[in-house]
Design brief:
alpha/beta, Rossmann fold, Arc Repressor Mutant, subunit A, 2 domains, 5-stranded parallel beta sheet, 8 helices, disordered C terminus
Length: about 240
């Protein structure tokens, strides 16, 4: 999932981005309303965390513009003004949730998960590929109900591949889906993440195929589903 944080307090924005990236999200950060408006025009986001007290273009006006363009990304509003009137105004303009400053990071993370669940819908809550399942909200992957120990980057990589089963995903696409602006992640780093993820998936009969010079795709190796160990996957190039 790709998130946009719109917050002019640099310290708070940095703390939010670090926390959410540790949860496995790709996060972009902007510090004023006009830059946020441009970002939301150019890029689709799964969720927006929006401060109301922004320079250049206020948060409520930005929210109004967002909804007028029929962009339905969930919006979690952050504000130091927790008056009833302010909350009602934000909700009427299309906000999905509200948090007053100061707040606990753990609560914000929980609200992000709740908004993501609501946005994705119950039918898309779990991604499946043979014996492999991934809960993109709970950030848990399993093979035959055995949980996989994956890093945040590995989970995001797996989610991207699971959303495109059997389809080629280039290294540049993976960088775009896994990383926010300013993240220094190279295509060589993507190769390392793929290598680590491949080693964890192959014992369960799931393999990632490399197409030289083009990218990767997720392919299911032979799996009978009867509890027997899967056949060894063919050697990937």
């Amino acid at each position: 999932m790709r998130l946009l944080i719109v917050e002019d307090d640099a310290v708070l924005a940095d703390g939010l981005s670090r926390s959410l990236r540790a949860c496995g999200y790709a996060v972009d950060v902007v510090g004023d309303g006009e830059r946020a408006d441009a970002a939301l025009t150019a890029q689709a986001y799964d969720l927006v965390i929006l401060d109301l007290g922004l320079p250049r273009l206020g948060g409520l006006e930005l929210l109004q513009r967002l909804r007028s363009r029929n962009i339905h990304s969930p919006v979690l509003v952050l504000t130091a003004d927790d008056s009833v009137e302010r909350r009602v105004q934000g909700l009427d303009l299309g906000a999905d949730d509200y948090m007053a400053k100061p707040f606990a990071l753990s609560e914000l993370e929980a609200r992000v998960r709740a908004l993501a669940r609501r946005s994705l819908g119950s039918s898309r809550n779990v991604l499946r590929h043979g014996p492999l399942t991934l809960d993109p909200i709970g950030r848990v992957a399993s093979i035959q109900d055995q949980r996989l120990e994956l890093s945040a980057r590995e989970l995001s990589l797996l989610e991207t591949l699971l959303q495109r089963p059997g389809r080629l995903v280039s290294k540049d696409q993976l960088v775009d889906h896994l990383c926010g602006w300013g993240d220094e992640v190279t295509t060589n780093a993507i190769e390392v993440y793929v290598h680590r993820l491949r080693k964890k998936l192959e014992p369960g009969g799931i393999r990632i195929v490399t197409v030289r010079g083009l990218g990767y795709c997720l392919e299911r190796a032979l799996w009978t589903g009867n509890g027997d160990a899967p056949s060894p996957p063919p050697q990937a190039h």
